[in-house]
Design brief:
246 residues, Arc Repressor Mutant, subunit A, 12 strands
Amino acid sequence: MQSVPPRRHVIADDIRNKISTGQLKAGECLPSEAQLASRYVVSTATLRSALSVLQSEGLVEKIHGKGNFVRYPLRRVTYVGGACTLRTEPSPESALRVSVHTTNLQAHGQLTDLLGVSVSSPLTEFFCLSHEGKSPHSLARIYVPRDLSPTEVPAESHCYEGVEAKLAELRPPLAEVRERVSARPPTPEEAATLRISSSLAVLAITRVASDSRGRVVEAALLVLPTDRADAFFTTHHMTDERTSEG
């Protein structure tokens, strides 16, 4: 006897089909959860479980206070290890834009270990949130010692390239960049900020850059949802070009 699939999967399949056939279009708001629960004759908990399946697939996003929306397809980006950059396919109509929020703070918790500084050492945090269209894409928190932070950067900026250029002017040449990549569930704050399901794994990248004296000049914590990001690393092997003479 064939088992009946759980109702949440039946609902998810139906909504997924409506999205794929264009009956529900990108950016469109779904009926309220109460209306959908009534339409499918299920409890609100079952309906939310079905929506969670679609959220984890990147098809639906929940915007607090507004409802559930069909998500615009988000481009995939590739984090290039060692290069400290995100690689994307050129597409001006869907280019990622980054907003930057700057805050002065004192070192605490894991920041003291990451930057190798004592508690309460002055730091500057750059909270970077990238968007594609109206949808949040990924986020990063970048920390630098206060003496390496430009003083003329505004508290709010929509030009990350300008902030990055100013940081590079003050930063000494890098001698080493260490990166740690792990996959984990998002924190509640990350899930809400990126509008993703708490069941969708994220790539958590910790990047620490040091100068020739061993001083940490920048520490970055990046969060890239796995439905739109990959990590790419290349190892170059040195070949022995010496030839024997005989």
